Each structure stands twice: as C-alpha cells, then as structure tokens.
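Hi, does anyone understand the following?
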Amino acid sequence: LCLLGSLQATRALMVAAIIVGLIGLFVAVIGMKCMKCMEDDQVKKMRMAIFGGVIFIVSGMAALVATSWYGNRVARAFYDPYTPVNTRFEFGSALFIGWAAASLAILGGAFLCCSCPHRETSYPASRGYPKNAPSTGKDYV
C-alpha cells in the first residue's frame, strides 16, 4: 500500500478506463440496429450508438494515458544511472497489451461514431441526364 502516487494514479486510471469501457459497451449495444430496444425511434437509436462510440473513445484515451504514463516511468528508471542494474524494469507484455487495447477501443469508438448515415443536404436533387427514346435503327441518316 506504500506505492508512489504516480503508480496509484495509473492504476486508478486503468480501473476507470475499464469501468467506462463497460458502460460504453452497454450503451453501444442499445444503439445497435439488431437490438429490439428503442426500435420505434431510429434517431435516438443512432444517437445511442454515437454516444457509445464517444464513451469508448474516452475509455481508450484513459487506458492510453495510463499505459503510456507507466511506460514513461519505466523508461526513465531504466536510463537513470543511479538505478541499480538488478532493479531495472523493462517493457513487459502488459504494456503492449494495454497499448493494443487502448488503440482498439479508440478505433472501435471511431467506427461507432462514423457508422451513422449522413444527413440530407439542402442542395436541390440532381436531375441526371435525359433518357433517349430507344433507337429503331433508321435514324442514322
């Protein structure tokens, strides 16, 4: 329990990222098209999906900050000349898993935010090209 303040902060930030990620998961599931919940109002359903994506991005950013903060601490301690050689840490698999999880959470949140259809613009509808009458073969003259 006698840990450094930065280590306690990174642990708290990772726990917060996990909890926020679970909340984002539940919100995003409500906004999916295959769910029966809120199926009568598609606009609210799309907003729930976007809100779930934003929550995933926040969760991923919290995990990224926590993992990078701890990685910076490990790198500074490794290159510190006053740190004994037998007590130096190196990057472990947990850091790489944390960076990968944060990247996937941010990417998934971005996909959820971009999955909604675009609104119609106020431009007039394009008329296209006029259709010609079928040719009878005698109009070459």
In short: The chain has one domain: 1-83+91-115.
